[in-house]
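This section describes the prediction task in plain terms. A model, or a person checking by hand, is given the sequence of a single protein chain and must write out its three-dimensional structure as a string of tokens. No templates, partner chains or ligands are provided. The sample shown here is typical of the held-out split.
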Amino acid sequence: MALGGRGRAVGGGRRGPRLPRAVARGRAAMTRERAVVPEAEFRSYYGRPVLKPPVWHEPHMPTYLYLGGMSGASSAIAVMARLTGRPRLDRTARVAAAAGASLGAALLAAELGRPERFLNMLRIFKPTSPMSVGSWILAAQSGLSAAAMTGDLTGVLPAAGDAALLATGVTGPLTATYTAVLVADTAVPAWHEAYRELPFLFAGSAMAAAGAIAMLGTPRAHAGPARAVAALGAATETVAGEVMERRLGFVGEPYRTGRAGRLLRAARALTVGGGLLAVVAGRSRALTALAGVALTAGSLCTRFGILEAGRASAADPKYTVVPQRRRLDAASTPAPDGDDLHAGRLTHDAGSDSDGPHAAHLTRDAGS
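The expected answer:
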């Protein structure tokens, strides 16, 4: 077969150049059909949500998240205070770290129903499981922080207590952030899609909470580093939350609406206000106390709000189905440099000069 004149097919061969035009017309028809037929709104699967909402209870789980984060960040403050020669801040942070880890473990055991279930999770160590790794991190943080506090308060084996404290410099930051990995590893849309920002948000919330406790429990003349940590944590949490909600777009609606939205707006106001007060408090007793209370309340509201947003996104099927449809539509969109580009070259006017080399490659000279 050869092309003659203005690209008309001559001879008895297959009409290759016309096939892509038919494909293009078919695709155009499909596009028009999609525009005419409205998309169905998916609400349930046989009367049930697509995902089973999280069964974590309140106040156990959000309080556990707060206490674990506060404990981890308090350990980091204690290490910093010990290395810089601030014994009063060191002692306050050690006590806060041990108390937070112990109470958090107790709440987790209560959440599981029976304490032995937590012990059963320590029977094996599975690096690919956030739950398994988190259980070991929490157990290590609880034991090490208790040893660090005991060595400081009793004076018995102080070197061992200091060694345990330095070890919490590793387990503390992990304790403050592993819960973010834990919730992001689920299928809950509001948590799973926020996997990039949640660790930073949880770390900032933990720093704000730990700084607040250290501010409240340390003489004002020695609480300067605690105020700095609290202010930095408040800024980190606020920025991470804003970035997360903007990036998530539609899937981030549960963070802005309903009970979760109210909790997170309150958390943002308390955290920003507490952070600013921590900066300007100086040695003012009233401002320091107000900043500490505001930051503590803000961190608690953040944990309650994050869990509530996850529950809301799991209960509404649209947060699961709509992103899946968008991903499927994006995957079915033809690539510009793939078959469509090749088809476009075939359907271009054969009389143009730009198609000369390509047409020569596809057709044979009738006289050859």
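For orientation: Residues 1-14, 338-368 have pLDDT under 50 and may be disordered.
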